Amino acid sequence: MYERFAKLGIECEFYCGVTFDDPRIANHITGGAQRVWSYTFGHLDMIQRFVDSGKEFGVFCEDDIYINKNLPRLLPTICKHFVEHDLDVLLLGYLLPFQVTKDHGNYPLIVSDDDHNISFHRFDNDLWGAQMYMYSRKNAIRILAKYNLDYAIQSIHNPSIIFSSDWVLTKDGNRALLSPIMAIEDNSTVYQDAGQRNFHFNCFQNHFDRDTFCDL
Questions:
Q1: What pTM was estimated for this model as a whole?
Q2: How distant, in Å, are the alpha carbons of 64, 131, 197 from that of 192?
Q3: At the topology level of CATH, where does 2-214 sit?
Q4: Which of 19, 41, 48, 182 has the fewest CB atoms below 10 angstroms from its CB?
Q5: Is residue 88 within 8 Å of residue 174, measured between CB atoms?
Q6: pLDDT tens digits along 32-49
């Protein structure tokens, strides 16, 4: 991942993640939910680092992605539209087995920037993936105040409360997705479930192009 970002001239900060013996996990939950809490707290810790940095925008990524080579060139334009449309969260990477077009009925168009060949779209709760997403500083502060350890503990006893990055961190707020996609899973993860395996492979196959993505 260092090489992939470096090849595009992007400086990034890596976070080592949250282990199961972290007190936020070990003192409160066991079993399969430990993994969900681990990666969700990992995202929240990255968001906290962003807030501490004082920067205006934060881009958060998973560690198994290919990056669109156009991202460095497009970021200023992406930030401009982000502000103009008062977005809280923008998905730059997500799981869809097709590409979102400007006239796609299920993903209503917010704005099309034909000069840069990008478009912003609304999305519903059935869209998954936290491969790469952008926050505003204001939204990051709000998210950290809401999705904390107390919220996670409530989710143990209340099934209507969900503590998972895919469910809440990518969907809470004024949200949009960017097309074309800026990050895709690199197809290195092995999924035991056949349905998951096929779905993730189809997502990869429908977006990956060696001319577009940095694939070291």
A1: 0.94
A2: 17, 20, 7
A3: Spore Coat Polysaccharide Biosynthesis Protein SpsA; Chain A (3.90.550)
A4: 19
A5: yes
A6: 899 999 999 999 999 999
